[in-house]
Amino acid sequence: MSTYEELSERVARAIAQQIKVKSNSCLGLPTGHTPLGVYRHLSKWSREGQIDWSNVRCFALDDYLETDEKHTFHYFLDEHLYSHTNLPAANKFNPCMTDNYDALIAEHGGLDLTILGIGGNGHIAFNEPGTCARSWTHCTWLNQSTRLANQDSFQDLASVPTRGVTMGLATILESRWIVLMASGEKKKDIVERAFQGPVTVEVPASLLKQHAKTDVWTDFSADYSFPSGATQTARVSL
Ligand code: PGA
């Protein structure tokens, strides 16, 4: 059990450490409410010169289709993270900006660390319940619950996009290390369903239980690690 601040700092430290250990790391990065604290820490440390992003490659997990520039996840990542770092423009990748995101990720050596949030319906990135487990980057319709959860960034529900483009479940599961972060009691039930219940595409996050190196960090319950029993310190030399 920890606070949102502690959770944010923990995830930020994992990213900073990843970059320190491998300066040309490929990162999969989320948007949403949950990672804001992580980006605040990373931005501060970057402005202080503590993190060198010059060789890092950042891949947004997903983005909206058919929205104005200011509502894109590319804009979000620029505003909350990239603009505070020395990440070169050429190293900022977004699934809307290429025809074959998976090939691009592979060309760069694959994702080293992917940070995920979790939707109230168990989605990861925009992989909504029922998405094929072997899906690569694809366009998708957004569930109404997802649109409602994201409504506060828009004028009204009608303005929230109905479609997005997202890394697929297979794309995410190929990442060498995954950290899923969840904050707040409202995420407790879905985290329990995903990580204590059966593996099912109806709860896309549950597929992470089949991944070789996933950590689930929350501010409301004990951590989960997959494969079960492995500990973060055992896997990452800090
Ligand atoms: P949130 O979104 O961080 O805004 O709760 C998480 C998600 O939908 O993946």
Can you walk through the features of this model?
With 238 residues, the protein is an alpha/beta fold. The chain has helices at 4-21, 36-47, 73-80, 101-107, 144-149, 169-173, 188-196, 232-235, and strands at residues 26-29, 57-60, 62-64, 92-93, 113-116, 138-141, 163-166, 177-182, 214-218, 224-226. It has a single domain (4-226), classed as Rossmann fold (3-Layer(aba) Sandwich), CATH 3.40.50.1360. It has 8 helices and 10 strands. Helix 1 (4-21) packs across helix 2 (36-47). The chain is globular.
Number of strands: 10
Radius of gyration: 16 Å
Low-confidence stretches: 231-238
The overall number of domains is 1
- Which strand-content bin applies to the residues? 15-25%
**The biggest beta sheet, please?**
7 strands, mixed
- Order of strands in the sheet with the most strands? 4-2-1-5-8-9-10
- What is the string of helix and strand elements? HEHEEHEHEEHEHEHEEH
Question: What structural category characterises the helix and strand content?
Answer: alpha/beta
Write a concise keyword list for the protein shown above.
7-stranded mixed sheet; Rossmann fold; alpha/beta; binds 2-phosphoglycolic acid; 16% strand
List the helices and strands and how they pair.
Layout: H1 4-21, E1 26-29, H2 36-47, E2 57-60, E3 62-64, H3 73-80, E4 92-93, H4 101-107, E5 113-116, E6 138-141, H5 144-149, E7 163-166, H6 169-173, E8 177-182, H7 188-196, E9 214-218, E10 224-226, H8 232-235
The structure holds 2-phosphoglycolic acid.
2-phosphoglycolic acid binds next to loops.
Brief characterization of the structure:
The protein has 8 helices and 10 strands. The chain is α/β, with parallel strands linked by helices and 238 residues long.
